Amino acid sequence: MDGPDRRAGALLATVGTALGVAGPVMVLRGRRGRKEIRAEPAAQKITFPERGLPAELAAYAGRRVETGPEAHAYAEFIKGNLAHATGGRTYAEITTELHATGGDDEKLSQLRQTAFTGQSLRASLMSAYQAWHLTTLVTGLGAALTGLGVALVGTADALAPRSPNHS
């Protein structure tokens, strides 16, 4: 192998090695992130009620929230309850109504607090759901980079000159 081919082989080997190291790190970080996502709802002891769930969430009855999809489902449960409690109005809309009354309406103040709490809980659960997807992406990309790194190192090895005694 001449100079340019040797340099190309060295570059393939270097990039392959770097990807072969980065890939497993990404897989480990993705798995560790997934474990952290599972731990937080478990620590909060978030559990779907046994009864009273809408039909589309009935399969979750009595289950603990431990995964991203379960966090999403619970966020949808909160969304339905919140819409019922607020008449479909958001925190911002209720705040506008409260300000229009001079801020002295106790019922609207309590409703605004309910909306704030519900929307905050829902946002936290949706963040867990989004993080779940990111850990899936990081783990998948890590696995792909590992495979690519191995392939590049193998290609560099196949391109390397062999001594006459080596076959």
Describe the 3D structure.
This protein has 167 residues and is mainly α. The chain is built from four helices and no strands. The chain has helices at residues 3-44, 68-86, 91-100, 106-159. The longest helix is centred in the C-terminal third of the chain and has 54 residues, at 106-159. It is elongated and about 90 Å long. The chain starts with a helix and ends in an 8-residue tail after the last helix.
Kindly list the characteristics that best describe this protein:
single chain; 75% helix; 167 residues; 4 helices; mainly alpha
Mean pLDDT: 92
- The gross shape turns out to be elongated
Specify Rg, calculated over alpha carbons. Answer: 27 Å
What summary fits the major beta sheet?
A: none
Structural class: mainly alpha
Poorly predicted residue ranges? none
**N-C termini distance:** 15 Å
The H/E string reads HHHH
Give the helix level as a range of percent.
over 70%
* Number of DSSP helical runs: 4
**Oligomeric organization of the protein chains:** single chain
* Number of distinct beta strands: 0
Strand content: under 5%
Could you provide a short overview of the structure?
The protein is mostly helical and 167 residues long.
